[in-house]
Design a protein that fits this description.
This protein folds into three domains: about 120 residues, DNA Polymerase III, subunit A, domain 2 (DNA Polymerase III, Chain A, domain 2, Roll); about 120 residues, Roll (DNA Polymerase III, Chain A, domain 2); about 120 residues, DNA Polymerase III, subunit A, domain 2 (DNA Polymerase III, Chain A, domain 2, Roll), CATH 3.10.150.10. Helices cover about 15% and strands about 40% of the residues. The chain has seven helices and 25 strands. The strands form three sheets. Strands 14-11-12-13-25-24-23-18-21-20-19-22 form a twelve-stranded antiparallel β-sheet. The chain has an eight-stranded antiparallel β-sheet with strand order 6-2-3-4-17-16-15-10. The termini are far apart.
């Protein structure tokens, strides 16, 4: 086999083989990050073999990487030097494993177009990977129009992390499997619910995050899975993410990466009517201490949801559980502040733990209006109105 240094150079094999080969060089870590980003859009259960691969092609903007499952598409560019323009589609599963394990920072890739074989080399490691036909790879979707909204990547990632987990997973009601993103004057609201709990995040859209004054699309339902992937890709990015919306698609653009998702059709439920307008019991509690206590007590939760009882009143909140054939568990957590009446409610521990893990606050405010009314968790500080998480109680026998 010819060495990578001779591929694409005069005298390397026959003239036809030389013309069919391309040699490029790039940084391993940048290639690994690019592959990891586009791989998030690749489905492992696709019935179309071409969708199990990552499109790789040289362009004037750099090495272009694309992954898609036709619902979610991700495109990114990384710096690269190359000698001949070419394209290949390599299996995402193996490509991701390979590039993460390459021993040296410099990666060289040669492509034999006649045999459709890519050779990846780093140090003494050499891989020959069969390519699928690039012409069969779907075109990357385009979302036309003006910027709908701008927001720093780290802020968008935080907003997604605090809402997307509350969306439903049952496909029988597709509109509940997404996150409602609604433009409302000077703010954008993100809402997700599975009817048992609800997460609402409000983000101001003024200043650097100002959106189009009159967006053609006032609201959209973004698939929770796609939104979660957006959050993972842009997390830690201080750069602004530009969001473009059309009646059936949404695009997120950040630096060299673009994520496009189809939108979900349907009417999102009127979530505002289930949010309590007041409270009868309110306490401020340490988030980590409450989370740890709920995790311990839920071990003896009565059912598959690990149902626990919360008791309000005094200078503590109590967490208890009862498994009739096993035993009981009980723990108290001190509260920083307590107002209103004493009370008790039963909640699914997983729903409570989900929000305690999703937010970063040191303290959270818990508000309740009765044993059969929703429990609401909010920020404890001045930004309390920016985020709200609601859990419906469950009925359990004593």
């Amino acid at each position: 086999m010819d060495s990578l240094e001779t591929l694409g150079q005069p005298g390397a094999g026959t003239e036809s083989q030389t013309e069919a080969r391309m040699l490029l060089s790039c940084d391993r870590d940048e290639l690994a990050a690019g592959v990891a980003a586009v791989q998030r859009a690749v489905s492992s259960r696709t019935t179309l073999p071409i969708l199990s691969g990552v499109l790789i092609e040289t362009t004037p903007e750099g090495l272009r990487l694309v992954g898609t499952d036709l619902e979610l598409s991700v495109e990114t560019f990384i710096p690269v030097s190359f000698s001949v323009q070419a394209a290949m589609v390599l299996p995402a599963r193996y490509l991701g494993e390979i590039v993460r394990r390459l021993p040296e920072r410099e990666v060289k890739v040669a492509f034999d177009g006649a045999r459709r074989v890519a050779t990846i080399c780093s140090g003494k490691a050499v891989y020959d990977i069969n390519s699928m036909e690039p012409a069969e790879f779907p075109l990357f979707p385009q979302v036309e129009g003006n910027v709908w909204w701008k927001i720093p990547g780290k802020d968008l990632a935080q907003s997604v992390r605090q809402t997307a987990f509350a969306a439903a997973t049952d496909e029988n009601r597709p509109f509940l499997t997404g996150v409602l993103v609604a433009w409302d004057g000077g703010e954008v609201k993100l809402v997700a619910t599975d009817t048992f709990r609800l997460a609402l995040r409000k983000v101001q859209a003024d200043g650097d995050g100002k959106a189009d004054e009159s967006p053609a699309v006032r609201q959209m339902i973004v698939p929770a899975r796609a939104f979660a992937e957006v959050g993972r890709i842009v997390q830690g990015e201080g750069d602004e993410v530009e969001i473009y919306a059309s009646p059936n698609q949404v695009a997120f653009k950040c630096r060299k990466t673009t994520i496009v998702s189809r939108l979900i059709d349907g009417q999102f439920p009127n979530y505002e009517r289930v949010i309590p307008r007041g409270w009868k019991s309110r306490m401020v509690v340490d988030r980590v201490r409450l989370m740890d206590a709920v995790e311990r007590v839920a071990v003896l939760g009565k059912d598959e949801f690990g149902t626990v009882r919360l008791g309000f009143g005094g200078d503590t909140v109590t967490i208890s559980a009862n498994a009739p054939e096993v035993g009981t568990a009980f723990e108290e957590v001190g509260v920083a502040g307590n107002e209103g009446e004493k009370g008790e409610t039963a909640l699914r521990s997983r729903y409570l733990l989900d929000v305690l893990r999703a937010v970063d606050d040191e303290e959270l405010a818990l508000e309740a209006t009765g044993p059969v009314s929703p429990v609401v968790l909010k920020h404890a500080g001045a930004e309390a109105g920016d985020y709200l998480y609601l859990i419906m109680p469950v009925t359990v026998n004593a």
